[in-house]
Every structure is written in C-alpha cells, then in structure tokens.
Design brief:
Elements: E1 5-6, H1 14-17, E2 20-28, H2 32-39, E3 51-55, E4 66-71, E5 76-86, E6 91-99, E7 104-116, E8 119-130, H3 135-140, H4 142-160, E9 173-174
C-alpha cells in the first residue's frame, strides 16, 4: 500500500506565483466543445500514455469534484480537488491534496479550452512548489518535468489532431 503525503491547497493566484510554472497552448483541429467533452468525460486524459485519471465524485461536476491520477508506472499517484469548474467557459483547475512521493508542497493544473480559427486551443498549465528542503532538487529536475509535460502535449496533439497556431503563438512557456 502506498504512503500518502499531504500537500497544501492553492487557489487561482498559484498559477502566477509558484516557483515552477509551465504553460502550453496546444493548437488542435478538434472543436472546443469536443475537447471539453473529452476532458470532463468518464475517462479523462485517456490519450495521455503516462497518465491514468478517473473522477471519484459523481456528476454533475463543479468546484469540489475529486479525481485520482496515476503517473507513469504508478510511483507517483495524486488525489486532486477541483477549485474552479465552469462548463460555460470550458475551464477547470485543481490542486493535488495528496501525493505518494514527498516531493511537492503544492501542485496544481489549469485547463482552458477556447475556440480558434483552426479548431481550438487547449491552454494546459502546471504549477508546483517543492517541499521544504527540496528546492534545489526541484530546480535541477525542471528539465525532466518539462519533458514529461511535453509528452502530455504530444499525446494530446496526436489524439485531437495538431493545428497550426496563429502567427506568433508557440507552446511550452516556462517560468
């Protein structure tokens, strides 16, 4: 049985204040409503080979919805709580309240799906703070984190179909 470590809850501001932030605008051929339906369906993120996610609360979903996630081979598992959920704007955000490795003080993700001329854009953001004493390890691990997140993006583009972004847009900004 895995040991679970508690993480600190965060809010909206965390996506602009966390020490480690990654943001990926993913330009897709699929319509925004179709992408949102997949993200909020019974098997969310099933196209991401390194993730297995399932909602653990019943619909209708909204703030307070819970989900469990297994990353990779299962060494890292997360229990998540959504603090923002708006179907009309096709956006939700969560923080992890527990993890099976003691690396994070806080961890959160934000998903926004917007209409675009080419189909849609999924704005997928990650933010985290390292547990006390692990700051240097977290900074050293940023390239690995970016590679893992880039895999998520690649799988998403493959599943929904990649579309050319509008002039001047690119993915993978890190802060």
């Amino acid at each position: 049985m895995s040991r679970w470590y508690d993480l600190e809850p965060v809010g909206e501001e965390f996506f602009s204040t966390a020490a480690h932030r990654f943001s990926f605008p993913i330009h897709l051929r699929a319509a925004a409503d179709d992408v949102w339906t997949e993200l909020t369906g019974p098997d969310p993120l099933r196209w991401v080979t390194r993730l297995r996610a399932e909602y653990t609360t019943e619909q209708p979903f909204g703030p307070g919805t819970r989900r469990s996630v297994v990353v990779g081979d299962g060494l890292l598992r997360l229990r998540e709580e959504f603090f923002h959920w708006d179907d009309a704007e096709r956006r939700h955000a969560f923080y992890a309240d527990q993890a099976t490795i003691p690396a994070f003080r806080s961890f959160a993700e934000d998903f926004r799906v917007t209409d675009a001329e080419h189909g849609s854009t999924l704005h997928w953001s990650f933010a985290y703070e390292a547990r006390t004493g692990l700051g240097m390890v977290a900074w050293a691990g940023r390239p690995v984190a970016k590679l893992i997140f880039a895999d998520f993006v690649r799988d998403t583009r493959a599943y929904f179909g990649a579309a050319e972004p509008a002039a001047g847009l690119s993915g993978g900004a890190a802060a």
